[in-house]
Amino acid sequence: MAVTDRAYALELDSKDKLSKYREKFVISNSDICYLDGNSLGRLPKETISAINSFLLEEWGTQVVEGWSTWVDEAQKTGNLIGRAALGADFGQVLACDTTSVNFYQLVGAALAARPGRKTIIIDSANFPTDRYILQGFAKTHNLNLITINNEEGGEAEHEQITPAILEKYLSDDVAFVTFEVIQYRSGARSDIKAITDLARKYGALTIWDASHAVGAIEMNFDANGVDLAVGCTYKYGNSGPGSPAWLYVSKKIQNELQVPIQGWFAQRDQFAMGPDFEKSLDIRGFQIASPSIIGLRSINTAFSMIGEATIDAIAEKCAIGTHMMIELYDAWLKDLGFTLNTPRNAKARGGHISLVHPEAKEIAVGLRQFVNVIPDYRVPNSIRLAISPLATSYVEVWDGFARLRELVATKKYKEIKESESRVT
Predict the structure, then answer these.
(1) pLDDT 10s digit of each residue in the chain, 424 long?
(2) From CA 177, how far away is CA 165, in angstroms rounded?
(3) CA distances to 150, 158, 336 from 355, in Å
(4) Pairing of strands 119-123, 174-180
(5) N or C, which terminus of the chain has less Cβ within 10 Å?
């Protein structure tokens, strides 16, 4: 059966062992093809019950007494994230703060752990927050910031940093390198183990940003020898807009690192309220302050679902779904001015693909305004389209691509009204 036949997608759905999870999400309009789960996941129905239960049965009745159990929830939820999605043993993940704050913390800790080293490395296609934070550190600490050019005209294909590219920039002066597990724009996947091992050969630490990977692919942090990592929970993690992020610190180096923001939740004897900071010797030593309990409960329901479904099954569906997208691109979109900016090898990509078009921004708006397809647009010319395995059906993806083809072939998108939203 040809991929261009809708029955192809329907057959995939009929065999999909994860299809039962779709009904566990709030889907208010079944005609919408929601292909933006890489940006914000759908709302699990169970989250509504969990939050209502917390409000009425815990906060509402226990008031401050609830802190006797809430105080350790960042670690408990962190353990869940590690077990369900990261391949990380207990005591190495905290669910707290934002990805940006956690990244700042780990950057500062990595620098302090490599005194005398003045070089740090990132790539130009990395997520803006990570680049901006490193620019700030470089300025205030007089560091040599190397930004590898892996964008158009640079030295990488699909923005993918390989060990061969990285090694040209490594030396004994490098304190750490930091890359995305999945490139946020192109969807290309990094070789976690190879890059971590290479950096370690030069005595450097590696900080991974897994925001566009967590909940979509298997990463096996412990088995791959990961040092440090951060990520969010609201994309494939389905934990809600602004839900708490997480950080990972390998047990092997926890006692070696000291974060720059020394909050009272990291204090060894927290409620002694002592005059001087004494860092907790476990993962708690990387926490700043009180966690968002409501946010953590959202993570608990969503990542429990991921754990039940298994990250291996989720990754398999990502591979199948993105393969179908690429085949539909070949059949329908290649001749309409699109270029694929995502690796064809399933092991070299995540849960989304990137389609480049000179009029990508207008097309992305047209998809929303005219044909009920929700993608997102990333400058300068990329449309990102994702399969979020627990909430998205194969036929939803197929229908979205069919509508995209029709929109561009008819040039209907040229009739768009300018969106007033700053969000693309």
Answers:
(1) 899 999 999 999 999 999 999 999 999 999 999 999 999 999 999 999 999 999 999 999 999 999 999 999 999 999 999 999 999 999 999 999 999 999 999 999 999 999 999 999 999 999 999 999 999 999 999 999 999 999 988 999 999 999 999 999 999 999 999 999 999 999 999 999 999 999 999 999 999 999 999 999 999 999 999 999 999 999 999 999 999 999 999 999 999 999 999 999 999 999 999 999 999 999 999 999 999 999 999 999 999 999 999 999 999 999 999 999 999 999 999 999 999 999 999 999 999 999 999 999 999 999 999 999 999 999 999 999 999 999 999 999 999 999 999 999 999 999 998 777 888 8
(2) 13
(3) 17, 11, 11
(4) parallel
(5) N
Q: Which two tokens stand for residue 20?
A: 């039962």
Residue tagged 């007089």 (tokens): 142
| Distance of alpha carbon 363 from alpha carbon 371, whole angstroms | 11
How many of the other CB atoms lie within 10 Å of CB of 331?
A: 14
User: Mapping DSSP to helix (H, G, I), strand (E, B) and coil, where does residue 382 land?
Assistant: strand
Size (the chain), residues? 424
Instruction: Provide the token pair at 273.
Output: 């309220």
Residue 304 identity (one-letter amino acid): S
Residue 110: HSE in the Cβ half-sphere, 13 Å Cα cutoff: 31
Crossing angle between the packed helical segments 360-371 and 394-409, to the nearest 10 degrees: 110
DSSP for 283-317 reads GGGG--S---HHHHHHHHHHHHHHHHH-HHHHHHH
Work out the angle at residue 189's Cα, subtended by the Cα atoms of residues 185 and 195, and round it to the nearest 5 degrees: 120
Tokens matching residue 213:
């990977």
Give the burial class of 416: count Cβ atoms within 10 A of its Cβ; 0-12 exposed, 13-18 middle, 19 or more buried. middle
Starting at the earlier edge strand, list the strands of the sheet with 174-180: 93-95, 246-249, 228-231, 205-209, 174-180, 119-123, 144-148
